[in-house]
């Protein structure tokens, strides 16, 4: 318990601000929303950048960690490409907006990235030599890529299935 207390006490103040922002963003996703195509694409771009920043801040821009990150992202996007999630997405052709039902899933995804970044940061603060261990760096990079892939896969699903519901042309994100 003492170690956990020390970890919390030594966490920089801005991290708690980021956590608060993550919670606010996640809570907003609990309610039905009307989103433009640009907003649907901006959210995964932001969270993908956050995950990539987490990887590069921990391990630098090493080819093997970048490849692991890309592999995690690609596997998740490809693996989830056929799923319609969230369910109930509709596209309003008159306004050009997508109706996206509220869900806890985005909150879980947001908190997953935050917690992964926090746990890796604490681990590296306590044992900096971990950054030099290939299995640790590759595993964390793969995780960050997979979490980022969730956001891209979800946005692709909304874009694809929302437009398909009205017979429109499918549009998906690509890197």
Describe the protein in words:
The model is unreliable at 170-175 (pLDDT under 50). The chain has a three-stranded antiparallel β-sheet with strand order 1-3-2. With 175 residues, it is mostly helical. It has one domain. It is globular, with a radius of gyration of 18 Å. It has six helices and three strands. Strand 2 (90-92) and strand 3 (97-100) form a beta hairpin. It has helices at 2-9, 13-28, 37-59, 63-79, 105-126, 134-164; strands at 33-35, 90-92, 97-100. The protein starts with a helix and ends in an 11-residue tail after the last helix.
Low-pLDDT runs of 5+ residues are 170-175
Rg, please? Answer: 18 Å
Query: What is the makeup of the main sheet?
Result: 3 strands, antiparallel
Q: Name the structural class.
A: mainly alpha
Within the largest sheet, what's the order of strands? 1-3-2
Strand percentage lies at 5-15%
- Overall helicity: 55-70%
Topology, pairings included?
Layout: H1 2-9, H2 13-28, E1 33-35, H3 37-59, H4 63-79, E2 90-92, E3 97-100, H5 105-126, H6 134-164
Antiparallel strand pairs: 1-3, 2-3
Helix pairs in contact: 2-5, 3-5, 3-6, 4-6, 5-6
What would you say about this model in short?
The protein has 6 helices and 3 strands, in the order H-H-E-H-H-E-E-H-H. By secondary structure, it is mainly α.
């Amino acid at each position: 318990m003492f170690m956990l207390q020390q970890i919390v006490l030594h966490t920089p103040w801005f991290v708690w601000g980021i956590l608060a922002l993550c919670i606010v963003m996640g809570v907003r996703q609990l309610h039905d929303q009307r989103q433009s195509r640009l907003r649907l694409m901006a959210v995964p771009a932001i969270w993908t950048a956050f995950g990539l920043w987490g990887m590069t801040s921990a391990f630098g821009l090493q080819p093997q960690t970048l490849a692991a990150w890309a592999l995690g992202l690609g596997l998740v996007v490809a693996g989830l490409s056929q799923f319609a999630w969230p369910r109930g997405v509709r596209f309003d052709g008159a306004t050009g907006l997508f109706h996206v039902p509220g869900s806890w899933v985005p909150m879980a995804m947001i908190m997953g990235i935050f917690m992964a970044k926090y746990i890796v940061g604490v681990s590296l603060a306590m044992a900096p030599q971990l950054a030099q261990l290939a299995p640790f760096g590759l595993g964390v990079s793969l995780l960050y890529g997979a979490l980022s892939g969730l956001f891209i896969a979800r946005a692709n699903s909304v874009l694809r299935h929302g437009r398909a519901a009205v017979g429109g042309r499918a549009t998906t994100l690509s890197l």
